[in-house]
């Protein structure tokens, strides 16, 4: 039995989807040429003054409202002082003693158990630049495009007790941010990233152990693997009678290990003080209520509605509402053809499979939701076979098209006419007398052979149900 309890707290940085930076008009576009989106303000030139982007305050406050935080009507920007080459001013504009949002929570579910994870605070801040190290040129470079890009930092309470809970919390946060439309949630591009504070303590002990902060995790899988490794590393140290050092560690995805980066800073190391160039942020109470009224239906509420309104099971409802574009696509299809369970089966099967195989999201799908509904209806009503429907689905997902026109052009209409199929079935039985005799002798599994032969002769257009009915009648006589 494990002797130590894992304690995890996460600091999540989410890039807000604004067109311009937090304190200047430079673009926030990702992937532009290095230092293409830089001005006197975000590069920290002497004598310039920052001007707050109002949209940043709105987006940050909406996230606070979505996770039941108290949104403070007055908050203050502070200078966080540290010296890195990618921080041109020598300080980062953030918030400290008076953040925008405090005391919220997110409910997560792991192994069928619901748990509440507290959120200590959500505050606004600017991103730093990016250092680029070239071993080939034996030189380092700085790209300031990200400098001044607006972020919110979401700081959790140390309420998580394992990597699975940490991942569930991250996924829940990301879903909320994407549903709100304030962050694209792209971990690979760094617009949604986290640092994990991990410590151990003997079971029953109230006092927290010494923590290590883990960085450089750009996927949910990396977060889980990094925490698992760190728990094992700290456990080994404690069981050998050694001490855990408070430090910042980097995760190496290629090796699945963490290694020391630097000693972990405390708040006093940053010498926070209110930024004299920025006045306090004051939000009118009626404006805050307006933002509250603009909040969309969030994932958990949508999931409950899908279960109650559409009669879906919990697993299907959870998966269909995990990503807002998928949920919106499904609802548009249901609006076109009110058969939610039948559409859900195709969404859970063909749709999600095609998304995974093609690497495309619901917004990249070339098939309109209405066309998807009509295609499923053609299959369900027996106009085309399920196999042909699945083949058409793949084509339409990637290229679009009208399902009825494609069925007609490809000659895929299913043959259900009993008289026409009876002639084919008679021909197949006559051509395979040994198999027919064996079937009558008790080898009933041979029916699959006969169905296959009929399908081959009709180029897959025969209605399987009618074929099976005819075969059962003909072979038993």
What distance lies between the first and last C-alpha atoms, to the nearest angstrom?
67 Å
Number of helices in the DSSP assignment: 15
- Going across the biggest sheet, name each strand in turn: 2-6-7-10-1-11-12-13-14
Describe the biggest sheet?
Answer: 9 strands, mixed
Look at the structure and give the mean pLDDT: 92
The best one-word shape is elongated
Query: Hey, roughly how much beta strand do the residues contain?
Result: 15-25%
Helix content: 40-55%
- The stretches of 5 or more residues where confidence is low (pLDDT under 50) are none
Question: Would you count the extended β strands for me?
Answer: 16
Q: How many domain units? A: 3
Structural class: alpha+beta
Give the quaternary arrangement of the chains. single chain
Radius of gyration: 30 Å
What does this protein structure show overall?
The protein is an alpha+beta fold. It has three domains: 4-287, no CATH class; 297-410, no CATH class; 418-475, Arc Repressor Mutant, subunit A (Orthogonal Bundle). 40% of the residues lie in helices and 21% in strands. It has 15 helices and 16 strands. The chain has helices at 54-66, 163-180, 220-239, 285-293, 299-310, 314-321, 324-336, 340-358, 369-380, 386-399, 403-410, 418-431, 433-440, 447-457, 464-475, and strands at 4-15, 70-71, 74-75, 77-81, 91-95, 101-110, 113-126, 130-134, 139-143, 150-156, 192-202, 212-215, 247-252, 257-263, 273-274, 281-282. It has a nine-stranded mixed β-sheet. A three-stranded antiparallel β-sheet has the order 5-4-15, with no helix packed on it. Strands 3-16 form a two-stranded antiparallel sheet. α5 (299-310) crosses α6, α9 runs antiparallel to α10 and α12 (418-431) packs across α14. The longest helix is centred in the middle third of the chain and has 20 residues, at 220-239. The chain is elongated. The protein starts with a strand and ends with a helix.
